[in-house]
Amino acid sequence: MKPILVAAAQTETVPGDLAANLIVHRRFIDEAGERGVQLVVFPELSLAGHSAGTDALRLGLPRDAAALRELAQGCSSVVAVVGFVEEAPGAQFYNSVATLYAGRVMHVHRKIALATYGRLDDGKYYGHGERLDQFTLPDDPRWQIATPICADLWNPALMHRLACDGATLCAAPVSSAVEAVGDAFDNPRGWDAVLRAHALVYGLPIAFANRVGHEGALRFWGGSRIVGPRGETLAQSESAREELVVATLDYDAVRAARFDLPTVRDARGVPALKSDIVSVS
Questions:
Q1: Does the keyword Hydrolase apply (predicted)?
Q2: What is the Cα 266 distance to its own chain's centre?
Q3: Which of 20, 27, 172, 189 has its CA 20 to 30 A from that of 157?
């Protein structure tokens, strides 16, 4: 089969304004379709805003919400991964992403590693996700796609699991601000290291979509990019404005990378290990 086009939609979210954010999403989905993109990834909480947890009672949407289904109607040729506050049964709220295609919500991932450090307080408002499911790209099942959200990618155990479960492409919705962790922490440099490491170690391409703009005292730095299976940057935003970052991914490159560095193969063959702590006096 032919290579595919994937895109990271680097957008600015209007906090708490679902109608305005839906307009932006439709515009980028339309552009992605016109450019022949098969998968477009939006930032974390792209429909609601970084601090949407404080207003979850108003902004929460069930996974079958009319707003999501209507947005999915525009996804006739492109699969779109969008961020939203999910209201689940029992009045439980999650930081989630919905994957939209052909008029329906085909997959939902709930953020597992809730960020509760620095200026991040996911744990105050959202429940922890408990599943790391994947889906296949329509018409090309070689591409098995996982959608870990932001801090999920900073948990090595989660990334190891999704790679060993068969993921061949990672869609990474992120909402990263310069000030989010602390003055001594370089968020852009940290993300560059994490993305390259995961891609290189597992032969796993990553579509990283970060937002731009301001929200309160937080400045979102963008840097959206597509990273190839050898840790190479295939395309990257160099601006702090809204844009669609597009790159071609070839499955043969994934095959070759995993053949040369068979991390996934070897990890699957490692038996369960046990360890003891030995006191030395």
A1: yes
A2: 26
A3: 189
The Cα–Cα gap between 21 and 156 comes to 32
* Angle CA 242–248–251, to nearest 5: 140
Q: What is the pLDDT of residue 281?
A: 64
Query: Is 107:135 a contact under the CB 8 Å cutoff?
Result: yes
Contacts of 156 (CB under 8 A, 6+ apart): none
Tokens 């307009």 belong to which residue?
A: 23
Q: What is the CA radius of gyration of the chain?
A: 18
Q: How far apart are CA 21 and CA 243, in angstroms?
A: 15
Residue with token string 């601090």? 51
| Extents of the domains making up the chain | 4-268
In the prediction, which pLDDT does 47 show? 98
Distance CA 114, CA 98 (A): 17
pTM listed for this prediction: 0.95
Burial of 58 by CB count in 10 Å (0-12 exposed, 13-18 middle, 19+ buried)?
Answer: exposed
Please report the pLDDT score of residue 275 as a whole number.
72
Q: Apex CA 229: angle with CA 227 and CA 233, to 5°?
A: 25
User: What CA–CA distance (Å, rounded) separates 116 from 32?
Assistant: 34
